[in-house]
Amino acid sequence: MDSERQMFKAKCSDCGADCEVPFKPTEGKPVRCRDCFSKNRPQRSFGGGSRFGGGGGRRFGNRGGDRGPRQMFKAVCSDCGQECEVPFKPTQGKPVRCKECFAKSKGNSSNFEDSEEEF
Q1: What CA–CA distance (Å, rounded) separates 112 from 116?
Q2: Position 91 in a domain
Q3: Residue 62 lies in a domain
Q4: What number is the average pLDDT over the span 32-44?
Q5: Chain centre distance of CA 103
Q6: pLDDT (tens digit per residue) in 73-82
Q7: Residue 33 near residue 17 (C-beta atoms within 8 A)
Q8: Could you tell me if residue 12 is inside a domain?
Q9: Which of 12, 46, 54, 98 is close enough to 77 for a disulfide, judged by CB 3.0 to 4.6 Å?
């Protein structure tokens, strides 16, 4: 530990022991002594040593594959006026596009069904 770090006196929220912590305690937030902190430390759910996203190659693109079927909502396309279904609840005043118009707006000239891009 850095010996120059400023320490603050506090009382452990769990066991009541007097302790020192490397941050200024804030009213209403729990403070734990070293022993209680070690006992209550949350287990990390990712592998590897990376601080950000060490989840074994799993990135943000998973799209929740294990959530089951995606809920679809009925809407009217703001561009062409056709009835369509979208994977989000439409918000009043915000434009909604059908698959075809969405693909056109993104400059995607290929068939939308074959595209990797989701809306």
Answers
A1: 8
A2: yes
A3: no
A4: 80
A5: 26
A6: 899 999 999 9
A7: yes
A8: yes
A9: 98
Please report, for the chain, how many H helices and E strands are present, in that order.
2, 4
2 domain-assigned: no
pTM here is 0.36
pLDDT of 62 reads: 54
Give 76's Cβ-side CA count (13 Å radius). 3
Rounded Cα distance between 14 and 32, Å, is 6
Using the predicted structure, report yes or no on whether residue 53 has a pLDDT greater than 60. no
Cβ-Cβ contacts under 8 Å for 86 (sequence gap 6 or more): 72, 73, 75, 96, 119
The closest of 46, 98, 53 to 77, measured between CA atoms, is 98
Helix (H) or strand (E) holding 19: strand 18-21
The larger pLDDT score, comparing residue 79 to residue 30, is at: 79
What's the confidence (pLDDT) of residue 116? 45
Please give the residue that has the higher pLDDT: either 39 or 9. Answer: 9
For 26, the token pair is: 């804030």
